[in-house]
From TrEMBL:
Residues 171-242 form the PAS domain. Its EC number is 2.7.13.3. It comes from Maribacter confluentis. This is histidine kinase. CDD domains: HisKA, PAS. PANTHER family: PAC DOMAIN-CONTAINING PROTEIN, PHYTOCHROME-LIKE PROTEIN CPH1. The keyword Ion transport does not apply.
Length: 555
């Protein structure tokens, strides 16, 4: 066939199918040479071959098959193509003939046109019977004499679209199933916050049967009036920031008419940068809220009670201190008189006393002296609290020199020595700190072993909280750590805390004079400096006292 052969103009072009038709030896088929084909068949085939829309033609009594390139993919890779070209309909489509024959019949016999959408017509292609969905029309093609000679099928294979729609429906069904099982609310709204979908739990709470009854107004009427603004602000901000948001607000329970707390998490949804609505969840947190509120009020009550008893305690403490101070102070006067008259007696009447009398008199004198030191200690103890505290930077070495000077006689008597291994400067109330070091050094001298010269070592260093173990010190604070070590009689470690209590004495009254107040004063002074003290001992080996005082005092 050439371009000049006008007889075959209707088979020109038409892609693969056009070529197939041109190359076919039609003389061997019942349909005969194309030049004998009726005009209507020629015209219809010409239209079909050149149409980009999938078309199929059943022609003649036997309903011979013709189709175009656009239709060809619907026949798959290994299947009917190209063998069904020119074949009778019944032969070409045995698997669906029972379904389509009645349709073709009503077109050829009654001249009806037929339109079907997404109809499942399984066909044999790709080596198997495949479920294929079609949207198609069957229309009659009349020959020159006005009789229906064929059926033109214009169709599209909608399998992919139908499968996609089915998948979507299935995944939506699953989503609804899961959402309805959830104890958490799940909802989707439009941009006006009208609810498009609400799961069962939410509908039940709000007292509605269907999501479609759920409008923005319903929602608004269920939210606690005090929380409405918060809700609007929250939604508004989420839209402005195009971000998820979380809100806690109260919603009315339709069955109890009571408001309960919910934690709502939502995310705005967009399509082409246009706000389309929100997707969200909400969890009932009523119990947590109640628990937290109860706990809060319980803590408030307890804190108030504690504050009250603290105030009470402080008051009592102050009263006790002033009582201790006043009574010690007042006791000084009669004691001074006893001591003064004892002096006079000692001076003037000693010779007149018997040996027994002298003994008794000495006991009176030593008792009076003990009482004097007790009063002095008690006064020092109560003063440690009442006196004004002015902090100053001092050098540890300097304080120790002063203490050494004050105790020079005792050092000499016991042949003792004190060494400052390392000194540091620290911010303290000088006279209190001097008293503290005095008490510790004098104890080390006092509780020395009988035939061993007391050796006291003092070390001052600046440390930070990380290297102090066993003590809970403030973070980010540097401390002056002062260690006083002696080689005295030591003590059992079980008394490490007790020795700091007032009137606590571990060693015999007879052997060591004292009141049991010295270390209590030491502890109080350390506390006045926001510091810590610890003591460890080993009987017959010695004692170690460690003091931690913040390097810089902060008010
Ligand atoms: P005291 O007036 O009895 O010395 P303190 O309060 O100073 O009172 O000390 C309480 C007790 O702790 C003392 O009685 C003593 O038993 C023990 N103690 C204090 N310092 C030392 C030390 N350096 N070595 C051994 N024991 C000590």
């Amino acid at each position: 066939m050439t371009d000049t052969n006008k007889e075959f103009y209707f088979l020109e072009d038409g892609g693969e199918m056009g070529q197939l038709m041109r190359n076919r030896d039609w003389s061997k088929t019942p349909i005969g040479f194309p030049e004998t084909w009726p005009q209507t068949l020629r015209t219809t085939i010409s239209i079909m071959l050149n149409s980009p829309f999938p078309m199929f033609l059943f022609w003649g009594k036997k309903l011979k098959c013709f189709y175009n390139d656009a239709y060809r993919p619907s026949l798959g890779i290994n299947g009917k193509h190209p063998s069904i070209l020119g074949m009778s309909g019944k032969e070409a489509w045995p698997e669906i003939w029972d379904d389509i024959a009645p349709l073709l019949h009503s077109v050829t016999e009654k001249g009806e046109s037929i339109w079907r959408e997404n109809q499942l017509i399984p066909i044999f292609r790709n080596g198997q019977l495949e479920d294929v969905y079609w949207t198609f029309s069957y229309s009659p093609v009349k020959d020159e004499s006005g009789n229906i000679a064929g059926v033109l099928t214009v169709c599209t294979d909608t399998t992919e679209a139908v499968n996609a729609a089915n998948k979507l429906r299935e995944s939506e069904r699953r989503f609804r199933e899961i959402a309805d099982l959830s104890p958490v609310w799940i909802w989707i709204t439009d941009a006006q916050v009208n609810v498009e979908y609400a799961n069962k739990e939410l509908l039940k709470y709000i007292g509605l049967g269907r999501s479609s009854d759920f409008t923005g107004q319903t929602w608004e009427s269920m939210v606690h009036p005090d929380d409405i603004k918060l809700v609007y602000d929250g939604f508004g901000e989420a839209v402005r920031n195009e971000a998820n948001f979380a809100l806690e607000y109260r919603v009315k329970n339709a069955s109890t008419d009571q408001f309960e707390w919910f934690k709502v998490l939502a995310v705005p949804r967009y399509e082409d940068k246009q706000l389309k609505g929100f997707i969200g969840t909400a969890m009932n947190i009523e119990q947590q809220k109640c628990f937290a509120n109860n706990l809060k009020s319980e803590v408030e009550v307890r804190t108030r009670e504690l504050e009250d008893s603290n105030i009470q305690l402080e008051k009592m403490n102050k009263e006790l201190q002033s009582f201790a101070y006043i009574s010690s102070h007042d006791l000084q006067e009669p004691l001074r008189k006893i001591q003064m008259f004892a002096e006079v007696l000692l001076d003037k009447e000693m010779d007149n006393l018997s040996k027994k009398g002298k003994d008794k008199f000495e006991k009176i004198q030593s008792a009076a002296n003990r009482m004097q030191s007790l009063i002095n200690d008690l006064l020092a103890y109560s003063r440690a609290d009442t006196e004004k505290r002015i902090f100053k930077k001092i050098e540890l070495q300097h304080i120790i020199d002063e203490v050494k000077n004050d105790l020079a006689e005792e050092f000499k008597k016991k042949n003792g020595q004190v060494t400052v291994e390392e000194s540091c400067s620290l911010e303290v109330v000088p006279f209190q700190f001097r008293q503290l070091m005095y008490n510790l050094v004098s104890n080390s001298l006092k509780y020395s072993k009988q035939d061993v010269a007391p050796i006291i070592t003092i070390k001052g260093e600046i440390v930070n909280e990380l290297i102090i173990s066993g003590l809970v010190l403030k973070q980010n604070t540097k401390y002056a750590k002062i260690t006083i070590t002696d080689n005295g009689i030591g003590f059992e470690n079980q008394f490490s805390d007790k020795i700091f209590e007032v009137f606590q004495r571990l060693h015999g009254k007879q052997d060591y004079v004292g009141t049991g107040v010295g270390l209590a004063i030491v502890k109080k002074i350390v506390q006045n400096h926001n510091g810590y003290i610890s003591a460890t001992g080993e009987p017959n080996v010695g004692s170690v006292f460690q003091i931690f005082i913040p390097e810089i005092h902060k008010g």
